Amino acid sequence: MKKLIKLIVAVMIVSMMTSPAAFAKSDNAKESLVAVGDSIPFGFNLGQTNKNPAKTSYPYLIGKLSDLRVRNLGVPGWQSDQLLSTLQSDQKYRQALIHSDYVTVTIGSNDLLAILREAAAESGGNQLLFQQLLQQKLATSDVFSNIAQTLAEIRSLTDSPIVLYNVYNPFQLTDPLHYVADPILLQINAAFAGLAFSTPGVYLADADAAFGNNQAIYVLPGDIHPTVAGQAKLAEIGLQAFGLY
């Protein structure tokens, strides 16, 4: 009887060792992608509700294409100071980054949209005054300082590669704001490039160039957020920036 029990145990062990399931990589064993930022990585307006990040958002697409476990920590409406403050104080975020293998950062669009709206409201339709106010507000804004500190904070927690997304033009070609935003984005995205190139292990994903003038394809109509195709494009340039594509 004892010999039979030993034989059964031996067969079970061999079966487990040779079973394909025994070699399957568990979700917890996968490398981790952590996405921080605003409503863009969240995938706002792509799901039936906006209670949880959309599975069609670019972090999940990167994860699917590269077999990465994804922590999507994007929060709709966040500006750069909110992300920075949270990274400095919230242990959930800090622990996620400590255990990350890849990190994406998408932040600043809401700061810049707020500046644009303030300048438009205060200028009263005067284009020259609008441009002057816009430059003044950009010059005194903390957005780029906040992003620089955010990148430094993330770097203090992990040596994982970081991909920083710049800002695409969210306005359709039929919207006059599209042509107002274009020259402003040249200046803004030059600052994003400077932030990426001045921080070790940070790589730029050029969302502005990737979207170009294809807002009809990549931006939801009557909205400023990416379509499913837009999210796929963001995933593509993120993979390229990481060297995973």
Automatic annotation (TrEMBL):
Keywords: Hydrolase, Signal. Residues 35-232 form the SGNH hydrolase-type esterase domain. Residues 1-24 form the signal peptide. The keyword Hydrolase applies. GO terms for molecular function: hydrolase activity. The keyword Ligase does not apply. It holds the Pfam family Lipase_GDSL_2. InterPro entries: Ester_Hydrolysis_Enzymes, SGNH_hydro, SGNH_hydro_sf. It comes from the Bacteria. This is SGNH/GDSL hydrolase family protein. It comes from Planococcus dechangensis. The lineage of its organism: Bacteria, Bacillati, Bacillota, Bacilli, Bacillales.
